[in-house]
């Protein structure tokens, strides 16, 4: 039987999603260990998006195959009982079609980047926030955001070690809003290059702080050169909040979060 799960995690103490040979601190390893304990057999999962070290998720989706006869409540409660407190299964969907794949069946991924924009660094929730001390002009950031939209070459915004065969991606929406001291960047695309959202954020921070003009985005993208862009924003403000699939798979829809901003 193929089973899909919705996963939430605080990535602050992990070396990213993916299981790694040199460390046990990956989200994947903890989840697979917990699921294997419930199933009483070895479980291997595939995920929708391999988040980097320090990056969080409220809407990660995984799937796995098993012959273990368990009810959905057992997968939910039993797995959560075996997971550390900073990883949680939010929902379980049993009996998925055989052609469902958490990664390859996905239509889009959606991320939110949360910035605390105050003169002093935050103490509360600091693992889940990025901090920018200079006042940010959200109007300028919104004006710049339109240059990212559509299908185009994002070579200027991919990390040096990016393994994707193509730099072309299609951004469906990119919105910037302020809620009190928080500035939220909300972006959805068919897929993302390595560090792409954090590099988009780096550009928008420079523009919001008045260092560069909104039209600078267009120049950076046209250069197709990572050296022409800004620094990569820190990982701790970034959340994978939603993965969309064709409706026929019946993947549950949940609030996108992060939950303290719902």
Describe it for me?
By secondary structure, the chain is an alpha+beta fold. It folds into 2 domains: 2-105, 2-Layer Sandwich (Alpha-Beta Plaits); 108-239, Alpha-Beta Plaits (2-Layer Sandwich). Helix content is 20%, strand content 26%. The chain has 5 helices and 10 strands. The chain has helices spanning 27-39, 72-82, 138-145, 196-208, 216-223; strands at 2-9, 46-47, 56-65, 87-93, 108-116, 130-131, 150-153, 168-179, 182-189, 238-244. Strands 1, 2, 3, 4, 5, 6, 7, 8, 9 and 10 form a 10-stranded mixed beta sheet that branches. Strand 8 and strand 9 (182-189) form a beta hairpin. Helix 3 crosses helix 4. The radius of gyration is 19 Å and the shape is globular. The chain starts with a strand and ends in an 18-residue tail after the last strand. 41% of the residues are buried.
Domain module tally: 2
Helix percent reads: 10-25%
What is the subunit arrangement here?
single chain
In the predicted model, the low-confidence regions spanning at least 5 consecutive residues are none
Calculate the terminal CA-CA distance, rounded to whole Å. Answer: 34 Å
Q: What is the CATH-assigned architecture of the largest domain?
A: 2-Layer Sandwich
CATH superfamily of the largest domain: Pseudouridine synthase I, catalytic domain, C-terminal subdomain
At the first level of CATH, the class of the largest domain is Alpha Beta
What is the molecular shape? globular
Give average pLDDT, whole number: 94
Q: Output the radius of gyration.
A: 19 Å
Extended strand count? 10
**Counting H and I runs of at least 4 residues, what is the number of helices?**
5
Helix-strand sequence: EHEEHEEEHEEEHHE
Tell me the major beta sheet.
Answer: 10 strands, mixed
